[in-house]
Amino acid sequence: MSTTFSNNSFIFHEQIDTQSISDLYGDDFPYIEEVFTTVLGEYEMLAANILSSYGRRDKAALKSAVHKIKPIFGFAGLTGTQHQFQLFENLCQDTTSFESLDEPFKSLQDSLLRSKLIITEEKKKLEVFNRDRS
Amino acid sequence: MNLTCIIVEDLQVAANYLTRCCERSGQVEVKGHFFNVQDALTFLNENSVDLIFLDVEMPDANGFELLDQIAFSPKVILTTSKKDYAYNAFQYNVSDYLMKPFTYQRFIESLQKIQPSKETISANSGSDHIYIKADGKLIRLNNDAILYIESMGDYVKFVTNDNKKYITHNTIKNLEEKVSKQHFLKVHRSYIVNLHKIDDMRENMLFIKGNEIPVSKANKADVFKRLNII
Question: Tens digits of per-residue pLDDT, B13-29?
């Protein structure tokens, strides 16, 4: 299921907060496409930092990497994912054992992969949408 | 445009969005975007700006380290997603926080916090005098008659060109906003001077009719900027 933009002109993925997108960019769809393109351009490196710091069992680096990627989701309207990453960052702050992060990290990793797919798909749809409108 | 700024931010999407907000406002000219603290510092060693949009968690250093190393005191708006910088924010005179991503409306509200109202600017630029409360009365002082203003704790001392001294309950910080920007400049946390009265400057001292006024490291660049150096 997908949700509709306020002027019914573009249908975003259901996990994208259309109100947030509207608040940030209005109905400037070429700019929204530009934002999604930029987000994808940065995504790989930011995600890799998370995975490598987890692999090293480095809690401080993991917390920092999660903190760094967090706004990316907000810019793409994935406010739920941004919140999930905020909670994980808080957990990194509060916990003393790295082991307690293992279970929540699985869910975080799933979100990391799923979010990239959503952003990629939305970017493609935006390209078509903007091309058709021009 | 009435403000110049730089953006210190390692997320490209955030820097682009902020640049767009600045352009849209018509109030802020972006002089540069820096992905790390060192590059920003190199720029600020040669250039002065009114405002820095600063992400605190940067790859090479904490953003506050940048503020430690520059020789002037720009306004600072933190662009971050953490609220726990309160102590540092107080120390560095941070004007506001912008939590990423923020709306354009929120950006404008942030700008309004650092810009004096149009009414204030108009009142300051149009007036050639001030009134102060001293000796139980309101005393008119022409801008041209004031040599400098010195902090005395909860009081300030106005020194005039006829060697009179007027002590009144006020602060340098408050006066900095109220006196004519054309005439006066804060050169030290304890001193505001009349730029038209400076006789000479040696090292970190200004001389006005035999009075020695210290210039702080943080204000030195502003002083040079305002003096008519040929």
Answer: 999 999 999 999 999 99
B103 interfaces chain A, CB cutoff of 8 Å? yes
**In chain A, which residue's Cα lies nearest the Cα of B56?**
A68
Helix H, strand E, coil C: the string for chain A is CEEECCCCCCEEECCCCHHHHHHHHCCCHHHHHHHHHHHHHHHHHHHHHHHHHHHCCCHHHHHHHHHHHHHHHHHCCCHHHHHHHHHHHHHHHHCCCHHHHHHHHHHHHHHHHHHHHHHHHHHHHHHHHHHHHC
Measuring CA to CA, how many Å separate A48 from each of A55, B20, B135?
10, 28, 69
Q: How far is CA B136 from the centre of its chain?
A: 32
Domain ranges of chain B: 3-115, 126-226
**A28-40 tens-digit pLDDT:** 999 999 999 999 9
pLDDT tops 60 at residue B126: no
- Tell me the CATH number of domain B126-226, given options 3.90.1720.10, 2.40.50.1020, 3.30.390.50, 1.10.1040.10: 2.40.50.1020
pTM assigned to the model? 0.69
C-alpha span between A124 and A132 (Å, rounded): 12
Subunit contact B12:A42, Cβ cutoff 8 A: yes
- What CATH number should be reported for the domain holding residue A24? 1.20.120
Cβ distance of B101 and A74 shorter than 8 Å: yes
> Is B118 a residue whose pLDDT tops 90?
no
CA–CA distance, A85 with A70 (Å, rounded to integer): 6
Which token pair is B195?
Answer: 């730029």
Architecture category of domain B3-115 in CATH? 3-Layer(aba) Sandwich (3.40)
> Would an 8 Å CB–CB cutoff place B24 in contact with chain A?
no
Q: Is the ipTM of this structure higher than 0.85? A: yes
